Write the structure tokens for this entry.
Amino acid sequence: MKINAQGLYYRVLNEKIHRHIQDGARSLHVTNVNGQRYIGGGLQGTHLRITVEGVAGNDLAAFMDGPKIFVKGNAQDGVANTMNAGEVVIDGNAGDVLGYGMRGGRVMIRGNVGYRVGIHMKSFGKQFPVLIVGGSARDFLGEYQAGGMIIVLGLDRPPGEPIAGFMTGTGMHGGVMYIRGEIEEWQVGKEVKIFETDETDHKRMLPHLRDFSRVFRVPMDSLTSKPFLKMIPYSKRPYGRIYAY
């Protein structure tokens, strides 16, 4: 089922999407998207697939629980905001606060992401969110991360450009972050420590790296050509002595 989003107000577009799903559509192809917000927001069901062509607006897949969204283009801020389950694939770049409060599912971005990506990302019950960035990230990556996995690959970076920005992992008190390449101590928050990866880490990352390679047609060798560093918190209550007595 195709929907032409050209010139449509975001509310009208989302009403069309929901109406087609209520009428039994299981696969939607939305073309000419130009910043319309909330696409996929609150949708439920593992049987749904939405392809978006263009630039998806803020809060793509917010509160989503099960569907798959593939974006042929870029996405703005707030992708997968508090997403519960499902998958978002972006064949381009994404903006700030991607994965805010994300509790489950997986997000894969081929390109770069903005600021405060993975903030408050958490595991919930048996759910374990995964966020994979093909390019680089800006400041405050993984801020207050409480669970799940963040992988940053640093592909296609200009010489000298850092893979992540300042205050990476600030307030992190759960989960794990894997950085392919180098990251300096001055870049990370005081709540985390940097370690070399081991065989267990490689096994955890491998299925996701294989999927990234397949979906974006990136040779697997290029994803494993550099060693990864692991960042984990050394305290589950990094601010306990400041805010609680």
